[in-house]
Write a structure and sequence with these properties.
493 residues; mainly alpha; 25 helices; 75% helix; 0% strand; elongated
Length: 493
């Protein structure tokens, strides 16, 4: 390892010396450049012995030498360095013998990787990589591959240290570059990688979500997705690109400020068009709308949704094929159905009492001989069946004494959907006597009653905001609503 490091140092010094002596005569330094190229590539196998090699690379100032080469006049040398760092930072380094290594060896490998990553961050690697973006000409295959390796380095470093995410966005123009890159008209691997990194940057960071919005990211991302209104992605890679862009918007919508921007960018209208077309983007659009309409910050989006005739599209998707075919209640509610239910719950929460929009919503549940209410009850039954199975599994695994974990696991196992369905049923029963009578009759046929809905809503009220990203003001409002619903339903039992 030390021999390789010494060889690299000599190759760098020789190349620098010849370039400074003969700056205008490439024939004089071309041989030393070829030697430098070969020497950098000879360091690649060090990724197979991270426990030994990485501490040595850090102690010997090799990291500093490699970072210095990122400003080399020859872009091919820069690409060599980028490819090497991408290989060294891969999470599977030393993976060939992973099955045979004991815990001590694994700890050494992890410690070596951490040491290397910290050294790279301290030497401002990510900032320098961003500064190099303008040097890559993606018309050239080698440059395109070089940029792919750069993006791979960002992914590797963020995977090991997610806290770098905020630093990257605050200190560099990386987010700006990504937003520009995903707008390319022709899809390729690097565009897909850029969208993946965008989703990662926004996943768990309020600061990055706000920065995304302030750099017109919401408008740009919606514009990118608008191409999928009338056509599906052409390849699996492009489908993943579309998914990542939808995920980025969903993450951004976790921030109340961004819901208003979504409306201003006509996001509600675009998502409804996608739902109507029933292409791949349709089910993703439902998820986006669920996020956009939730909470007090989503109330304006709820109004826009109804004004844009979204109820017809929403309930058409909700009913699906159930008019023609008996629904298998034992099957879990699909992700799309769960999001549709979330949208209905948000509409009931936010649309003003006695408003034309709210009246239109309630009318949907009455029309067609209460068919939408029956569909809700079918979903409820299916979720209950699944939840019983999940509760049995959890009880065997963790025991009832771990109350917090028990509740969160149940939420994931179907309780959240059950709570949302019963929240909707509670609202529509309170607002329409005919619906309440119909629900009571249909529950009775399933050996259930309004008391079962009361039990669900009582537990929901007692745990509002647990396992949820709900704002405190929204949680207080939801508790107040649940108390009102419970008061009414209890008086009916």
């Amino acid at each position: 390892i030390r021999r390789l490091i010494l060889k690299l140092e000599r190759a760098i010094n020789k190349n620098q010396d010849q370039r400074s002596k003969y700056p205008d005569d490439p024939t004089k330094f071309i041989d030393s450049e070829a030697d430098l190229d070969a020497t950098i590539k000879s360091l690649m196998p060090l990724s197979q012995v991270p426990a030994l090699a990485y501490p040595e690379l850090v102690k010997s100032e090799t990291i500093s030498m490699l970072i210095g080469l990122l400003s080399h006049e020859n872009i091919d040398i820069v690409i060599d360095v980028v490819e090497l760092i991408h290989e060294l930072t891969d999470e599977d380094v030393g993976g060939e013998d992973e099955d045979d290594e004991d815990e001590g060896e694994e700890n050494k490998r992890d410690a070596g990787m951490k040491m290397l990553m910290n050294a790279l961050a301290e030497h401002s690697l990510l900032e320098l990589l961003v500064q190099n973006f303008s040097r890559f000409n993606e018309e050239e295959e080698s440059d395109r591959q070089g940029l792919f390796h750069v993006l791979g380095i960002f992914e590797n470093m963020l995977a090991l240290n997610p806290e770098l995410s905020n630093l990257i966005v605050a200190k560099t123009k990386f987010l700006q570059w990504i937003l520009s890159r995903i707008q390319a008209k022709v899809h390729d691997e690097n565009r897909g990688y850029a969208s993946e990194l965008l989703a990662i940057l926004l996943q768990n960071s309020r600061e990055n979500r706000i920065a995304f919005a302030s750099q017109s990211g919401m408008e740009m991302a919606l514009q990118v997705l608008s191409q999928y209104r009338k056509k599906n992605p052409e390849t699996a890679d492009e489908e993943e690109f579309m998914e990542n862009t939808f995920d980025a918007i969903c993450s951004a919508l976790q921030e109340p400020e961004n819901k208003e921007l979504f409306n201003e960018s006509e996001g509600v209208d675009l998502m409804l068009i996608m739902m109507k077309e029933k292409l791949m983007a349709g089910s993703r659009a439902v998820k986006v709308l669920d996020n956009a309409l939730s909470g007090s910050a989503g109330s304006k989006n709820c109004e826009v949704f109804v004004e844009a005739l979204g109820l017809k599209t929403l309930f058409s998707a909700f009913m699906g094929k159930s008019k023609k075919k008996k629904v298998d209640v034992s099957a879990p509610a699909s992700e799309e159905t769960s999001h549709i239910i979330g949208i209905i719950a948000s509409l009931l929460t936010s649309l003003a009492s006695e408003s034309p929009e709210r009246t239109r919503l309630l009318t949907k549940f009455v029309e067609g001989d209460y068919e939408k209410v029956d569909r809700l009850l079918d979903v409820r039954e299916g979720v209950e069946v699944r939840l019983k199975v999940v509760e049995k599994e959890i009880r065997e695994e963790i025991g009832p004494e771990m109350d917090d974990l028990w509740y969160l696991r149940r939420l994931d196992g179907g309780l959240f959907t059950l709570q949302t369905v019963d929240y909707i049923l509670g609202w529509i029963c309170m607002e329409d006597d005919g619906i309440r009578s119909h629900v009571s009759v249909m529950l009775g046929r399933r050996s259930k009653s309004l008391k079962n809905i009361v039990d669900t809503l009582r537990e929901y009220r007692d745990n509002v905001a647990d396992g949820d990203d709900m704002e405190e003001s929204d949680a207080t409002s939801r508790r107040d609503i649940l108390n009102g619903l419970l008061g009414f339903l209890e008086s009916c039992i």
